[in-house]
Design goal:
Helix content is 29%, strand content 19%. It contains six helices and seven strands.
C-alpha cells in the first residue's frame, strides 16, 4: 500500500480494477480499458492502437514481447525498471533509436534479479515512475528524447547515463521486423520464487504440451 496509489479498502481487489476506479475518480472523463490478462503472443495485439506504451512489467520475457511488437508496429515505448535502490529508464522509438534487444541482446531471466529476493525501496519506485512519466510527457509534446539509458542509485544518489545510439544491431529481429518463432515456456514455482525455463520447440514437445 505504501508503494502504490491504493488504500486499505482496495485489499483483496485486483490492481487493474482498483487503479481504473482511482483514475476515474481523479478524471471522470478519462476512458480506461482494463484487460485482466497476462500479456503474451496471443493477446499483444491489444496494444495495436496505442500512441505510446509505458512498460510497468517485471520480467524480461514480457519486455522483449513489448519491444518486438512496438518495433513491428512503429509504436514508441518507455522502459523503466526498479530493484533495490537502482533505477533504469529509456525511451525506445522505432525508426529513431536502436531497440531494447539491440542494447540488451539475449539477456535471459537467469541474469535477472528479483524484487521478491532483493527488495525495492519506495523511493526507488517513485524515481522510476517519475523518470518514465517525464519521458512520456516530453515525447508526446514533441520534445527531443535523448538516445540514452539513465541509471540512478537512489540510496547513493548517483546518476549515470549510457548513450546507446551506436548499438544498432543490423541482424536484430525486432528492428528488422522479422517473425520470431514462439518458444514454449515452462514456469516452475517453489516457495513463491518463479523460474522460467526455455524449451527447444519440436513437434513432439508441441504435441505433449497440447
Amino acid at each position: 500500500l505504501v508503494r502504490q496509489n491504493f488504500t486499505k479498502s482496495d485489499l483483496g481487489r485486483k490492481k487493474g480494477e482498483a487503479i481504473k476506479e482511482r483514475i476515474l475518480q481523479i478524471q471522470p472523463d478519462s476512458k480506461v480499458i482494463w484487460y485482466d490478462e497476462f500479456l503474451n503472443e496471443g493477446n499483444v495485439s491489444h496494444l495495436k492502437d496505442m500512441e505510446l506504451i509505458l512498460d510497468a512489467t517485471d520480467n524480461l520475457e514480457t519486455r522483449y514481447l513489448i519491444n518486438r511488437y512496438s518495433y513491428k508496429n512503429n509504436i514508441p515505448w518507455i522502459y523503466s525498471a526498479a530493484i533495490d535502490s537502482y533505477v533504469s529508464s529509456a525511451a525506445f522509438i522505432p525508426g529513431k533509436t536502436p531497440c531494447f534487444e539491440c542494447v540488451y541482446g539475449s539477456l535471459s531471466e537467469d541474469n535477472e534479479e528479483s524484487c521478491s529476493l532483493d527488495g525495492v525501496l519506495i523511493t526507488t519506485l517513485l524515481e522510476a515512475v517519475s523518470k518514465q512519466i517525464n519521458l512520456a510527457v516530453r515525447l508526446l509534446s514533441g520534445n527531443e528524447i535523448k538516445t540514452e539509458i539513465n541509471h540512478t542509485n537512489t540510496w547513493e544518489q548517483n546518476v549515470s547515463t549510457l548513450d546507446f545510439s551506436s548499438l544498432q544491431d543490423d541482424d536484430c529481429f525486432s528492428c528488422n521486423k522479422k517473425e520470431v518463432q514462439i518458444i514454449p515456456i515452462v514456469r516452475i514455482t517453489c516457495r513463491g520464487q518463479g523460474k522460467d525455463i526455455r524449451l527447444e520447440k519440436t513437434d513432439e514437445l508441441e504435441s505433449k504440451i497440447s
